[in-house]
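Severity: low
Component: inverse-folding endpoint
Summary: output formatting inconsistent between runs
Steps to reproduce: submit the following structure tokens with default settings.
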């Protein structure tokens, strides 16, 4: 039986992680996988996470099961972090999931159960795992234009024109902030136009928000999500704590579903819990518990927010430096977009061949579509990257 299995296509981002690990060069630079690194190249455990772990170690008396949908205190804290008071809590069903990817999977399964005919609309480009999961679940998908690769910004006219093609009940996947892979974000008036279009056509927004706090700030990064939540009768959300709490390996995420009424919310919540049971039973608790402790303790929360802000401002400073260095070396303004993009990523605009040359000749690793992770750089490596980009002709 097992010989019938075919080789699965390698995940390009994870494949790159392995290639980087196997490269013996000491001066190699990893701008691949979306993991935050400080100036020393370390992905630190955040201070508040360490403090919460110390408290938990002393206070925790059992490792017995929590609730099937996760600890209600975690679900409340995460709903509040993402949605604040944009929608009545009584309309929001929630389930803890293994990371943001687990939430994406759960949300899509929920869509498949509620409306197997729904088409999932994805931005072109998007995080490669989006289409991969949708394919795996055998669901229909289409893309909408998102990125203008000449202007290196959002092709909003193209996006709206394509989304005019959705049918009632179709699901439109949007990146809540810090678009992965491009770094180009929607403005608030653009979010409003999307809300109007979705309401007109009966589409359902599905927001993947994995980088809240990495762009313009915790509240600012959730502004588009909250705008939609305040207006849409139904909405789906997958949120991740991997990046903003730095708990990547703990797998802490949440699936949120805004129902049209409190009565329907109960059924939706029951379905989310049922899906947890079918997929993995109880969700992982450790990371979720740390997040809950941090969000519900004013001292821990203030320290977490302060460190998150240091991370965010550090990435912005790198963006400014890289943009200025490239401007100096190229004598042109064509790299100004790096400073205006937000989050961990920017798509720099190198060809696949140039990306290979950057890797082979300069030991600089980025995803094949020329997405680079800003957090992989520091003050010393920015000029090295800038020179290499000019050298390969970007
Ligand atoms: C990324 O896009 O690099 C991250 O979200 C990590 C991953 O799992 O792909």
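Observed output (run 2 of 3):
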């Amino acid at each position: 039986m097992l010989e019938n299995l075919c080789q699965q296509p390698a995940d390009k981002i994870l494949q790159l992680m392995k290639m980087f690990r196997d490269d013996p060069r000491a001066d190699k630079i990893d701008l691949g996988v979306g993991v935050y690194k400080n100036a020393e190249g370390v992905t630190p455990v955040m201070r508040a996470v360490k403090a919460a772990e110390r408290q938990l170690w002393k206070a925790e008396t059992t490792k017995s099961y929590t609730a099937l949908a996760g600890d209600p205190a975690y679900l409340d804290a995460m709903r509040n972090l993402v949605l604040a008071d944009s929608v009545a809590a009584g309309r929001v069903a929630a389930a803890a999931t293994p990371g943001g990817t687990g939430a994406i999977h759960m949300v899509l399964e929920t869509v498949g159960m509620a409306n197997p005919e729904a088409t999932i609309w994805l931005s072109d480009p998007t995080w490669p795992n989006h289409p991969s999961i949708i394919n795996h679940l055998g669901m229909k998908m289409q893309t909408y234009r998102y990125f203008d690769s000449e202007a290196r910004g959002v092709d909003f006219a193209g996006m709206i024109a394509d989304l005019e093609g959705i049918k009632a009940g179709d699901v439109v996947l949007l990146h809540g902030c810090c678009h992965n892979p491009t770094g180009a974000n929607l403005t608030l008036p653009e979010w409003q136009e999307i809300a109007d279009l979705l309401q007109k056509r009966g589409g359902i927004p599905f927001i993947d928000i994995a980088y809240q706090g990495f762009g313009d700030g915790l509240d600012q990064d959730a502004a588009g999500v909250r705008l939609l939540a305040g207006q849409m009768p139904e909405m789906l959300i997958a949120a991740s704590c991997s990046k903003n709490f730095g708990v990547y390996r703990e797998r802490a995420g949440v699936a949120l579903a805004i129902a049209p009424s409190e009565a329907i919310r109960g059924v939706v919540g029951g379905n989310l819990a049922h899906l947890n049971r079918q997929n993995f039973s109880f969700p992982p608790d450790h990371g979720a518990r740390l997040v809950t402790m941090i969000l519900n303790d004013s001292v821990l929360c203030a320290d977490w927010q302060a460190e998150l802000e240091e991370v965010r401002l550090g990435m912005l400073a790198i963006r400014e430096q890289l943009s200025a260095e490239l401007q100096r070396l190229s004598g042109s303004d064509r790299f100004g977009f790096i400073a205006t993009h937000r989050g961990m990523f920017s798509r720099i605009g190198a060809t696949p061949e140039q990306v290979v040359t950057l890797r082979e000749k300069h030991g600089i690793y980025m995803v094949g579509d020329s997405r680079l992770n800003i957090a992989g750089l520091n003050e010393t490596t920015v000029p090295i990257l800038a020179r290499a980009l000019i050298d390969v002709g970007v």
